[in-house]
Write a structure and sequence with these properties.
There is one protein chain. The protein is an all-alpha fold and 71 residues long. Helices cover 83% and strands 0% of the residues. The protein is built from 4 helices and no strands. It starts with a helix and ends with a helix.
């Protein structure tokens, strides 16, 4: 749950993450959608099919951003 504050902290954002993500709000939105799923899995709760779909979509979205900007 500390990903957003770490990534969006101004010094970290400028020096590391801005070239990848472009917009802080994009990062916040992705992690906001993933947060409930993370909480459920850490508390041994079952995730729904909808949760699993969100997980796949957001993970793929973040992965594509990183891969695209790595080259």
């Amino acid at each position: 749950t500390d990903y957003v504050p770490v990534i969006c902290r101004e010094d970290n954002w400028r020096s590391v993450f801005a070239p990848f993500f472009k917009r802080k709000e994009s990062v916040r939105e992705s992690f906001q959608r993933l947060y409930p799923i993370r909480v459920d899995t850490m508390h041994a709760r079952i995730i729904t099919q909808d949760d699993e779909l969100f997980l796949c979509v957001e993970t793929l979205r973040l992965e594509r951003i990183i891969i695209k900007n790595r080259n």
